[in-house]
Write a structure and sequence with these properties.
This protein is of the alpha+beta class and about 90 residues long. The protein contains four helices and four strands, in the order H-E-E-E-E-H-H-H.
Length: about 90
């Protein structure tokens, strides 16, 4: 993922859509600034995922799964978003 700013714009455009973790758990997210807020089962997950976190994870993609994103916060959500065809392409 060479042009991260374009990836970030796609992440912003897909906010509110349903994504799935590698284990199939559905979630969505909002992008109120330079970070994401994840929602699962109608409740916001108590964690913000920064744009910087996504930039570093994008540099590690493609990855086979969240475990390959060592050191990245919310790796399950981060990987699911970055691996999604709507974000990746």
């Amino acid at each position: 993922m060479s042009d991260f700013e374009e990836v970030w714009r796609r992440i912003q455009r897909h906010a509110g859509e349903t994504f799935h973790t590698i284990t199939g758990l559905p979630f969505s997210y909002a992008v109120p600034g330079d970070y994401l807020r994840v929602t699962r089962d109608g409740s916001e997950v108590n964690r913000s995922l920064s744009k910087t976190n996504f930039r570093k994870a994008a540099a590690m993609m493609p990855a086979d799964g969240p475990s390959a994103l060592k050191g990245r916060q919310g790796a399950s959500y981060t990987w699911a978003i970055l691996a999604d065809p709507g974000i990746r392409n």
